[in-house]
Task: structure prediction
Amino acid sequence: MAKLLAAIGALLAKTVVTAGLSLVPQPAIIIQDLPLTVASITTSTVAAAIDTTSLAATVISGPATTSLLSASAAFALVAAGGVSAGTGAVTPGLLPQVKFLSHKLTGTAKLSPASPALNAAPSPAPQVAATPMIPKATSAITPAPTAAAGKTVVTTASFLNATTLSLKEDRDGPYEAVLTTAPADGTPFIWGLGQSTIDGSGGVPSFSVSSTCNPIPNMPLVTDTDQNPTFSVRTTYTCTIGLAALSGSDQSVHTKQFTFATDPGQFIIIPPSSMDTVLNSSNNQGGFVFDNEDTEPVTVTGFAINVSYTALNTGQGPLVLRFLDPVSGAPLTDYHLENLALDPTTQYTHTGTDIQIPVSFTIPASSQKLLPIELLGVHTVSITGVNPAVTITLQTVSTNPSDAKTILGQAQISWSCEVPTTSYDPNATSGALASGLACQ
Result:
């Protein structure tokens, strides 16, 4: 009987696997102790138990303990007599107790046709349940990274499409056009109509620049540092800007049209360019210049001032500020300073803030006028180390129309003098008397 079983095992091993095999770690056959006759083990049974395509694990159930063995070990077990005599059942305890899956059969294995059963006697069919192998986790396939994308190619058309126009008001009244190009990537590029070319930098190509405007703007002189044209106030313009690339396949002129309206002009108040600032006891003259840069007249209806005076004697008579009409020179209003409060922070000084001066005078369009101011009734006090002084600072201006763009440009005037510390010497070359700054 032992020889017969060995022969059967050898025959099955030879019949089932005839080609070169290699061992790769994979799930093995799981066999439990079960009533299996030798006659029921055929090449068909083994072929059914071993899926040579997927080589998934196969479970052959039975009523006893479970053992694990590889496909090649199963054939060796049969050949070695691991089947009991008489019943042909697998003998418990002869199968190795394996806790890890064995090896997968790979290669060009060929299966011969199933052989007829050696014993025709029926035997209980084994319960076979296929357990699909859980696939081994694999990493997702990630495409190879591509090269970093470069900056967006700037063309003449895209450069113009990304360009906007804004207005900047100059100090002397008119407006300048400021062109800003914001590309899809990169820093906004600022340029002007005074440029004949745009030099490529920061990813911006080089372009030639041309422009036409209707009506024609104010063109600068050749000797002017700023060669940008200026646009008059309260005027609507239409400008067409042309760009042509200086290199590349497309060097044609691309254009974009802008239509815009300028705002009202500025109404600027500044001190006069020159005035006598030495304080004297007779008549001190000064004032403020009202410069109307608008194309419409502006009427001044009042203003607010701050006033301070130091080391003056108001006990001998009134100390008066007189405001005169810019056109006729006639008095508009007087304001008395002798009642100003003593300033607690500055010795010998009196101050007044937000003093309202009601007036009414008109500055024609595109013109300027001086508002004359006189300081009357000055009596200085000789205090060592303290110089008499009077300061007037313009705070606010009320106008008609009320939307005039009023700008106060250092609107402050002052008079002062120095108290002589020595007697008058016509030959002196230094000191208050020699410099002409002495109080008179």
Q: What stands out?
A: Residues 14-88, 98-120, 137-148 have pLDDT under 50 and may be disordered. The radius of gyration is 54 Å.
